[in-house]
Amino acid sequence: MAKDEFEQVRAERDPLRQAQRATELLALYQQRGVELARLRKEAIDRAAQELGMSYTAVAAKIGLSKGRITQIRQTAPPAERAFFGVGPVTVAVPLRRMDGRSAGVIAREDAASAEQLTALLTSLQLQVQQFHIPTDGEWTPSGDTVAICGPKSSHVTAEAIAADPHLAFEADDGRWTLRDKAAGKLLTSPMDQGSTSEDLAYLGRLPYRAGTLLVIAGIHALGSHGAVEYLASNLPDLYKTLGTQSFSAVVRCKVEDGKVLEAEAVWGPRTHT
Fold it and tell me: How far apart are CA 40 and CA 76, in angstroms?
């Protein structure tokens, strides 16, 4: 009979490997503990709402005091935490080629988007790890991952977006556009029409190989910054409407001096059913 991960770490003889695996499992178990706390709070609220029970009655049924139930409801992570998975969450941004530099660089807007998203995830008690997508776009997402990356920068996000039943992200005369497949309507970025402060972004949770991938892809890097702000401002409602289903949306934003002034969905969100 195969040993579980915990027993494998206990039996590991290589001290460096043991320390590495113990660190990885500690992070995983901690995140699962936080998720269990979220699930418990949600279940307690559901029992009260769906079964018509008082919280005192719920407390008695599950073997906790009324005071402990109150504490759980006040301190457990919010339900919308599940929008991003269980954690740890990887935030992936692309390295971009720049003349005169052998190593890739991260666009300023992408860095700002990653920083804001990390702050949001941290506020939801999710552990965050950063990943830089190589300039060739070759990488393998694993676990709960958010990619702030368009199809031009990586074939991974291109493949994921290609599975969207509603929207296509494609080049049109050298400019990237979003196309509503059913209506045949093209959604173009204001930046490609002379604006310096407005952009569009694709936002979607998509099946990718054995898992799912949450994709934030501005037509330009500015759009990704606005999409993260849209997520941060609307997360409770998005989770209530979408849960953890696959979906897609188009977000329009206005950004000045690095600050998002407006961010709204101009298409969707629509679930993929």
Answer: 8
The residues pairing with 203 across neighbouring beta strands, listed in sequence order, are 216, 249
- Between CA 143 and CA 75 the distance in angstroms is 26
In whole angstroms, how far apart are CA 175 and each of 66, 190, 192?
60, 12, 8
164-213 pLDDT tens trace: 999 999 988 889 999 999 999 999 999 998 888 999 999 999 999 878 89
Give ∠ CA 247-150-159 in degrees, rounded to 5.
65
Contact between 206 and 164 under an 8 Å Cβ cutoff? The reply is yes
Mind listing the pLDDT tens digit for each residue in 48-85?
999 999 999 999 999 999 899 999 988 888 999 999 99
HSE value, Cβ hemisphere, 13 Å, CA-based, for 91: 20
pLDDT band at 247 (very low <50, low <70, confident <90, very high): very high
Strands 247-256 and 198-208: antiparallel
What is the length of the chain?
273
> Residue 227 is encoded by which pair of tokens?
């999409």
- Let me know: does 77 contact 31? Beta carbons within 8 Å: no
Contacts of 216 (CB under 8 A, 6+ apart): 113, 117, 146, 147, 148, 149, 201, 202, 203, 224, 227, 228, 231
Give me the phi and psi of 73, to 5 degrees please: -70, -25
User: Is residue 7 packed enough to be buried (19+ CB in 10 Å), middle (13-18) or exposed (0-12)?
Assistant: exposed
